[in-house]
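Input/output pair, single chain:
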Amino acid sequence: MRALLVAVIVLASSASAFAYPQFQISKDQTCTGCHLKPSGGGLLNENGMSVAENISLLPSGPEFMYGAIPLPDWLNIGGDVRSILGYVQAPQRYLLWLLMQADVQAAATFSHFTIYATVGARPPEKFNETRTYVSSQEHFLQWQQEEGGHEGLFVRAGRFMPVFGLRMVEHTLYTRRYGGTPLFSETYGASVSFVKQRFEVHASAFLKDPLVDPVRLGNGGAVYGELRIDDKTQVGAGAMVEISSFDQKLRGTLTAKRYFAGPDILLQGELQLVNPKIDGYGYRQIVGHVMGTYFAPGGVMVDLGFGHYDENIRITNLDRDAFDLNVHWFAISHFEMLVVSRLEILGWGSGGPTGITAMLQGHYRL
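Output:
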């Protein structure tokens, strides 16, 4: 039950600026169609701002600060502020209000090169407070083959999250929390990405963070690719290896997406098989999540998902399952209200008390 409580606290901690992969296939074929980074998330390009405006209920001007502060063509500035309020049962009952995220992002582009950085508040590490009250989760130098384009070769070096799996924004989903990209696991490394309309491939190498007490405890690498069979269907696969001083993990993932234009519904899922080894002892884990998304009128997006995590398939009642219902309301292109609800079951009732989350989140984009 301590693990459940930790999950709740993490839910209310700072969130990485991931994108909504629900918009890929349903709104654009690639993440680079809307974002500056080949992995998606973070700052929007011109097309991304147009999508943000189109999915919202009311027009508001999607540019930074509604266009009130003109920026030169080479500079892109943005930011995210998130706060959350609600009820948690784990099994103790809490009413929580916390600031989740307060980040400022900037990117300066000169010809084929982009300097990208995110700076914001985060929960401080004990005995390392001065370095962690404010931190930069991402900062890197990027070169891209097509100047100002959305396709081709992208090369990055710096601090960022390895490109792996569906990259869901909800970091409490099992495929994020236990799937190789947990909260605050950005670290130093390099990546090469090749993106086209029909396919994309990403290769990342990373190191244990030498500056702060890291979430990612080892060195390693990841490779992940996606193939768009047609403009409504996508499949993907990848592998990641992490090696630390006390363990190693090898994980493989399969992903899929299918968009149904008539009812305006996107289905997507991810399944990971993980083989950790500690002091030579190996075992098996399973991590998975499926989600259906309905794009309703009035700037509403409804997500219904199911997640499964089996910590060790040889031991009973260690598995956990989660049912998620999230309702997003994009009032304007800069503001989103989100109802987050989850029912979490341990060992189908035999592994411990059931956890419940029901929270209201506000997200403002600068």
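The chain has a mean pLDDT of 91. The helical segments are 2-11, 46-54, 129-132, 174-177.
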